[in-house]
Specification:
single chain, alpha+beta, 5-stranded mixed beta sheet, 20 helices, 30% helix, globular, binds ligand MTE, binds hypoxanthine, binds dioxothiomolybdenum(VI) ion
Length: 762
């Protein structure tokens, strides 16, 4: 099966590429609006922490077009939108826990009226002191979840005995998803208590569950559909659910269709972001740079509710050693409770935060020993002469770690450029260039084993056309084309024969979110199973028709052959489909897949949580103006292991996009709260996203001849999140250029300028 692929593996363009360009791709807000549509808008708290004493609705009610104003008191089911735990409120009740928290919702005949009325609602809030920083929450031990502890060996003794020791402390920032299409949902009540919800969500099933919980309905009353999102990046994994539940509440209350489209400001104020982290660690090492022991604290700002912070911390903690092996380890992970918006999934899901830890340490060790960071990192790579086991008990592939790095080193002409840069820096009066590198091992699978499952539904029609549906959602990442390629491969037909259809809880139920980069791994196998079931029935029908053994039936280029030498009978795929229907053979099948061999003991922090690892390596070059702190990323050489890529064109796009998104997180994107805990970066004028001119020259290389070693679909590997972390090389390059080891993230020009002032090395 694996050797002769024809359609899987082709660099086909994204199925909607042209439509994205022409504007013909329909996003939720482009759908025809149902008759009687109402619009909803949210009233948000302007206070970070306090008791909600009263709501003055008089001014809001006076605005023409207002149909209803709803609060927690109007919720017929439970005021609970928690994705994993309990007691996370859709609308604040007595306590307000962050500025931007929804307090009430206005439903009106026009969106403008709803927005105006929402802004006119005057909540009376008795202020309490907000806890706004990780440090403040740590001091009071305000945690959202029990601390996590990953421990192996005897770190205290090994630290004490180490020839060298050092302490490090630094911070990484949050990140706003800034999907092009903001959060939006359209809820349409039907007969009886039925409800259809169109939602821009990565997780239609969770929208169904949370809307049902809020409304007190059975799941079978609610159908959730999404054709595509205009970007999600983790921001529509749990946050889309409460937006949709709010629209559903309004629709049920008014018995009319309701659309809730958050304004950009409301979206940024009310929805979660990447978790900012604080890192403190002690590390012990020998004269050669071998790391002997690590004792680290990773503290995340989780915001006011747990949301997905448990999973994010699990990934951060399990990725703290990244591609390296250390024998004696203690990593503590705490999710701090603060009065900020509840932080959530963001591309990498704690992995990007986790892998920063050792990079910070590697540069400090390199400086202490006067060797290069690359020497220190390679010396500690898992595998080779070092053990390959992670502290939680899984094994890394040391050969792939070394291969991606060797390829990045070669492609980037690393040693020559490093020498050139030293010469340049020694002679230029104020510009400093820097070269940084990074190597990644990222675990692929949801950290929670039960989420690693998927379903699909395939129909073949009488004319031989195929309709494909699966539980995965399309957010621009190219999932639909990849899964269509898998199905085209199974039937040996052209890709054009396959129609992709919107994700719907009515077609494939009980799904997991499209997240953790597992979309094509999970749905690819599920669709393969569904298509194979239909194909088998078609083959049996052809075999009976020709009176030959079913094993001899061949599908090739849209035709079916008996497969014996000299037998030149054949059926067109459509003829065989027609024959099957005539013979009363079902041409429809569901497919199901669950990732094998996963287990995780969360209390012991031991197990086999990831099906496999994705490897990558990067080299980045920067130039810094030491007078102003301004800098440019000049070039990035990236190597990413995509296994045997299902679609190298899509994968390249994912690598480019992820790298630039990582670059934004680490350099220019800065969330800024005022002293009262109000986020003041509520739009692109104050929140600096990377623009086209911030993108460096990128040389992207998919690791050659590297089929996955576990049975993934056609031996491909996930690509959605891992390359985001390759941007870590830019942080290292900036440290090299500025000559400092202390550079908190995001490394904005201000921080870079401050770093230049503290330069200690070159
Ligand atoms: N690519 C685009 N264009 N838009 C997105 O929203 N989300 C990323 C990644 N790539 C995203 C994207 C995230 S966070 C994940 S987990 C994966 O896509 C999810 O899709 P996959 O599992 O099919 O790769
Ligand atoms: N990644 C992304 N989303 C998730 C995960 C994960 O590992 N676990 C639960 N939701
Ligand atoms: Mo991606 S953060 O797993 O949605």
């Amino acid at each position: 099966m694996d050797t002769h692929l024809r359609i899987a593996g082709l660099p086909l363009p994204h199925d909607s590429a042209l439509k994205h360009g022409t504007g013909d791709a329909k996003f939720l807000d482009d759908l025809p609006e149902p008759a009687g549509l109402l619009h909803a808008a949210l009233a948000l708290s302007g206070v970070a922490h306090g008791h909600l004493r009263a709501l003055d609705l008089a001014a809001a009610r006076a605005i023409p077009g207002i149909v209803a104003i709803l609060t927690a008191a109007d919720i017929p089911g439970r005021n609970d939108i928690a994705p994993t735990f309990h007691d996370e409120k859709l609308f604040a009740e007595d306590l307000v826990e962050h500025a931007g928290q929804p307090i009430a919702m206005v439903v009106a005949t026009t969106r403008e009226a709803a927005l105006r009325a929402a802004a006119a609602i005057r909540p009376e809030i008795e202020k309490l002191t907000p806890i706004l920083t990780i440090e403040a929450a740590l001091a009071e031990e305000r945690f959202l979840l029990p601390p996590m502890l990953l421990q192996t060996g005897d770190p205290a003794a090994a630290l004490a005995a180490a020839p060298h020791r050092l302490h490090g402390e630094f911070r990484s920032g949050g990140q706003e998803h800034f999907y092009l299409e903001g959060q939006i949902a359209l809820a349409i009540p039907g007969e009886d208590r039925d409800l259809v919800i169109h939602s821009s969500t990565q997780h239609p099933t969770e929208v169904q569950h949370i809307a049902a919980r809020v409304l007190g309905l059975d799941h079978n009353r609610i159908t959730v559909a999404v054709r595509r999102m205009g970007g999600a990046f983790g921001g529509k994994e749990s946050n889309a659910s409460w937006v949709a539940a709010a629209a559903a509440l309004a629709a049920c209350h008014t018995r009319r269709p309701v659309k809730l489209r958050l304004s950009r400001r409301a979206d940024i104020a009310a929805t979660g972001k990447r978790h900012p982290f604080l890192y403190r660690y002690d590390i012990g090492f020998d004269d050669q740079g071998r790391i002997l022991a690590l004792d680290a604290l990773l503290a995340a700002n989780g915001g006011h509710t747990p949301d997905l912070s448990g999973g994010v911390m699990m990934r951060a903690v399990t990725h703290a050693l990244n591609a390296c092996h250390v024998e004696h380890v203690r990593v503590r992970g705490v999710a701090c409770k603060t009065n900020t918006v509840s932080n959530t999934a963001f591309r990498g899901f704690g992995g990007p935060q986790g892998v920063l830890l050792l990079e910070d340490a590697i540069l400090r060790i390199a400086h202490a020993l006067d060797i290069t960071p690359e020497r220190v990192r390679s010396r500690n790579f898992a595998g080779g002469k070092n053990p390959a086991e992670t502290p939680y008990g899984q094994t890394l592939e040391g050969d792939l770690i070394r291969r991606v790095w060797a390829e990045a080193e070669r492609n980037s002409d690393f040693h020559r450029r490093r020498a050139d840069i030293e010469t340049f820096n020694a002679t230029h009066p104020y510009l400093r260039r820097g070269l940084g590198s990074f190597v990644l091992a990222f675990g692929v699978s949801f950290g929670l084993p039960h989420l690693n499952q998927a379903g699909a539904l395939v129909h073949v029609y009488a004319d031989g056309s195929i309709r494909l549906n699966h539980g995965g959602t399309e957010m621009g990442q190219g999932l639909f084309i990849k899964i269509a390629q898998v199905v085209a491969e199974v039937f040996a037909v052209d890709i054009d024969r396959i129609a992709m259809s919107a994700t719907s809880t009515g077609e494939v139920p009980n799904t997991s979110p499209t997240a953790a980069s597992t979309g094509s791994d999970l749905n690819g196998w599920a669709a393969h199973a569904a298509a194979s079931a239909v194909r088998t029935r078609m083959a049996d029908t052809a075999a009976a028709h020709w009176d030959v053994p079913p094993e001899t039936i061949r599908f090739d280029s849209g035709q079916i052959f008996p497969g014996r030498d000299g037998d030149n009978r054949r059926l067109d795929f459509a003829e065989l489909a027609h024959l099957c229907i005539h013979q009363r053979v079902s041409l429809s099948a569901t497919g199901y897949y669950k990732t094998p061999d996963l287990h995780w003991d969360g209390a012991a922090m031991r197990g086999h949580p990831f099906f496999y690892f994705s490897y990558g390596a990067a080299v980045a070059e920067v130039a810094v103006d030491t007078h102003t702190g301004e800098y440019r990323v000049l070039r990035a050489d990236l190597v990413q292991d995509c296994g045997r890529s299902l679609n190298p064109a899509i994968d390249r796009g994912q690598i480019e996009g992820a790298f630039v998104q990582g670059l934004g997180w680490l350099t220019c994107e800065e969330l800024w709260w005022d002293v009262e805990g109000r986020l003041r970066t509520l739009g692109p004028s104050t929140y600096k996203l990377p623009g086209s001119r911030d993108i460096p020259i990128m040389n992207i290389d998919l690791l050659d001849a590297a089929p996955a070693r576990v049975p993934t679909i056609f031996r491909s590997k996930a690509v959605g999140e891992p390359p985001l972390m390759l941007a870590t090389a830019v942080w290292n390059a900036l440290k090299h250029a500025t000559g400092t080891l202390d550079l908190d993230l995001p490394a904005t020009p201000e921080r870079v300028l401050a770093a230049c002032a503290k330069r200690i090395v070159l």
